[in-house]
Amino acid sequence: MRIIKVQSNGSIKEDAFVNRSKYLKAIHDIAESYLSAVHQSGILTTDMDGVLIHDDNAIMAARIVSGPEAQVWFGRYADANLVAVAEGMAAYCWYAPTLFVGRLLKGLSPEINRVVGRHIRLIPGAEKHIDNLLELGYDITAVTAGHQESAEEISNRVNIGVTYGTQLGVSDDGVYDGIVQRFIGGSHKLDVVEKILEHEGKFVGTHVGDSWSDIETLAGIPDSVAYNPGCELALRNARISVLGVSLLSLLPFFDPEGKYDSLLKNTDLPDTVILMLGQPGPTGLTKLFADSREIKKKWINALLDGQQGSALEIEERIKSELREKGVDFRTRYSDFMSVDEFDAYAKKAYEDLE
Fold first, then answer.
1. How far is CA 61 from the centre of its chain?
2. Segment (H or E) for 83
3. CB neighbour list of residue 98: distance below 8 Å, 6 or more residues apart
C-alpha cells in the first residue's frame, strides 16, 4: 500500500503504509483536497472498458462475427490509429477500430451487441462499487466508446441509469448498416462529459477513465480519476490514478465520511495511489505504468478466469445464447483491407463524421 505524489517540479515522493487505518486516512485527505466538489454534487461519469468491464466489448463482438483473425486486424488498425494520435489527431482516438467493427457488423442484428453486453466480464467489485455509490447518493452516467446496445446492457447489470455510447447506424430492416452515426471517444467523449459535469460555468463532478479514448477527457476535466491506466497519457492526464484489482479500490475517494471503510477487505484497497501535481521526465512513470499494466492485464484476468470463466468461455456463452435466439452472427470474414488502405478510409470517414 503506497501513495506516490508527483510534485509540481516533477520530483516523485513515495509513502509506504503498513497500517490500514493510516492508509485510508491518507486517501480521504487526498479526496477532501481534490474531490470535495464531487462529494457535494454527487455527479460522476465513468468509462466502461477497463473500468466497469475487463474485456473489450468491441473486440468480443468482432471475434463473435468474424473469428479470432478479426482481433488480429483490430490490433493492427488500432496501432495505426495510435500513430495518428501521436501525430496530433487526438480527437481521432479509437475511431478507426470502432469503424472496423462497425463494418464487420454490417447486415447483422444489434442483438449481437446486446448479448455481448449481458455476458462480458465485469471488473471485480464493479457491482458492489456502483451499488455503494448509489447508496451514497451519486448520480452516475456511463460515457463510453463502446457500442450503445452493449453499453446499455452493461449499465443495466450494475444499475447505471444513463448511458452514452458509440451509435452504429441501423437500416430500415433492423440490421446494422456499417455507418458510425455517433462516436464517443477523444474530444467527442470530452464534449459529452463536459455537458454532464458542468453547472453555472464550473465543473462540479468528475470522470473516471483509464485509456486512450479517455485521454482528452482526463486532461480536460479537473481532478479526474484513472483506474489502472492503460496508457501513459491517461496516467499523466489524470489528477488521481488508482491501481488495484477491485473497483472497490476507488470507493474511499468518493466516501468522504468513510462509511464503507470497515466493509472493505484488504484486497479491495488500492495497491497504489498516484497524485499528479506536476509532470515527471519522459521515463519518470515507466515503472508505475508497468505496474498498472500488470494489474490490468495479468492479475485481474487471473481473478476473473477463476470467478467468471475465461474470455473464451464467455465467447462460447455468447454464441450459445445467439444460437438459442436464432440470431445470425456469421463466424468468418475475409474482406480485410490492408492497414494503409483502412487507415485512409477511416480518416476520410472521420472527416465526414466531423
1. 17
2. helix 68-86
3. 58, 145, 166, 180, 183, 185
| CB 124 within 8 Å of CB 303 | yes
pLDDT, tens digit, 9 for 90 and up, residues 244-269: 999 999 999 999 999 999 999 999 99
Which residue has cell 472527416?
351
C-alpha to C-alpha distance for 97 and 94, rounded to whole angstroms: 6
Q: What is the pTM of this model?
A: 0.93
According to DSSP, the β-strands at 2-6 and 12-16 are antiparallel
- The count of domains in the chain is 1
Segments forming the whole domain that contains residue 346: 2-353
What the block records as the C-alpha cell of 211 is: 485509456
pLDDT tens, 5-38? Answer: 999 999 999 999 999 999 999 999 999 999 999 9
In whole angstroms, give the CA distance from residue 18 to residue 168: 49
* Residue spans of beta strands (DSSP E) within 231-302: 240-243, 272-276
CA distance 296 to 213: 16
For the chain, strand residue ranges (E) read 2-6, 12-16, 43-46, 139-147, 162-170, 176-182, 198-199, 202-203, 206-209, 225-227, 240-243, 272-276
What is the chain's length?
Answer: 354
Angle, in degrees to the nearest 10, between helices 57-66 and 311-325: 60
Task: Name 89's Cβ contacts closer than 8 Å, sequence gap at least 6.
Answer: none
Question: The C-alpha cell of 55 is what?
Answer: 474485456
Nearest to 58 by CA among 185, 170, 173, 161: 185
CATH of the domain at 53: 3.40.50.1000
Contact 208, 160 (CB under 8 A): no
Alpha-carbon span 126 to 85, nearest angstrom? 30
In terms of phi and psi (left: phi > 0; alpha: psi -120 to 50; beta: otherwise), the region of 168 is: beta
Which amino acid, residue 53? Answer: I
Query: What are the residues whose beta carbons fall under 8 Å from the beta carbon of 135, sequence distance 6 or more?
Result: none
Torsion (CA) 214, 133, 291, 305 in degrees, nearest 10: -100
C-beta separation of 31 from 39 below 8 A: yes
